[in-house]
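Repro:
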Amino acid sequence: MSKKDKINENEEVVKVTVEEAVETANEQEEKELTVEEKLTKELEEQKDKYMRLYAEYDNYRKRTQSEKVAIYSDATAKAVEEILPIADSITMAMSTMADKDVPQEFTKGIELIAKGLKASFDKMNITPFGEVGESFDPNMHNAISMIEDESLGENTIAQVYQIGYKLNDKIIRHAMVVVANCG
């Protein structure tokens, strides 16, 4: 080998060695984070864990609150469903007493019971529906039969066999009705 070749070879070795040294130094700097950087990184990780835990707890709290409301609503609906036959009997007794000669004390007593039952239903947001003349809604009413009546509009309730009740937007019992002029 000539001197020139040896010098070129030595220059290449030196260049490679300098480049390797710079890369190694940079890698060591990256590996050796300062104490402050380590603490900052650890703090960020802990903040992230805390925020995730907080979000999870908040979702749990909201879910249990909505479940609690749903359970209360279902329990109220179930209890009212058991009381509805009594309400029907009181309504039937009142309509029967109007046609017959019944002592005023009995009439007044039945009216007071009906008034108390209506007040209790109002407190619990229970509303009756299914009146003659209302528009028929298959989501709220059960059609028992259909008739043709020119005095009533299309899909109108002509007769009510059983009043329907709902708790807020939840149907407790569908109204049983006769529908006029079904299209």
